[in-house]
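User: What would this chain look like folded?
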Amino acid sequence: MYENLLNISEVAKLLGVSPSTLRRLEKNGSIEEYGLKVIYTPGGQRRYILDELKQLYSKQGFSGQTGFGERPALLIRDLTVAFTDPHSQLAIKIDEQISATKSLIEQAIKFNVPIIFSITIYESSNRVSRLWCEKFPSIQILDRQSSWVNIHPELRDYPYDMMNYTVYITDLHNQNVDEFLKEKQIDTIILAGATTSGSIRATAVDALQRGYRVIIPKEAVGDRNPNLQNSTLIDVNARYADVISLDKVLKGMKPAEEKIK
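Assistant: Here's the prediction, encoded as structure tokens.
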């Protein structure tokens, strides 16, 4: 019931105000200044409707659409055992992500769209890796030789154009990835994988700054809980990428001549 609702801290962060401000503005179960309805859980906690936040962003001049360019590439991040096995410290909430990503891969292969699979690894000899580990100790399990960094079994046997083992948060920090995309004259990047609030968000920002259109099929990215997933997608869609349905992304991957059939 509460999966399409956000808590007060998430909404406050998205609106750039404090939770106490939202409480102060609330009257009779709504926040008229923002046009938000307040819902209370059985435990008395405030929740806010996801769709109302999306509408608010649109009214405020956010959430424009860049659309697809002419040459898309598919970048998949961290759909590995570490991020998909429920026994892992890093596991995301898996619903449609694997099947959605399979559909993206098969469509990409059909229409010769390049596919890059990026895998986060931990290297104790790398300063960036050690520093990230101070903030996020769980990444220590991502040793290059560990089975945790194996690709999810349902995605393992596809032919990827590039495997990108990386200690960095954004896929595009790797010079080889950047050069590959430029060589292929890519103008649109489709992002799938994990985590939405981590590497997916960071790569979306980085890609936009490098001049790429960024597309995120909402069914193909995941995070550790629905609230974090929803709030991140709202903000990323408002500022850096087009967050759209899987069906629309699959259609957008077709060459121009196929789209008009």
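Residues 5-59 form one domain. If you want, I can go into more detail on any region.
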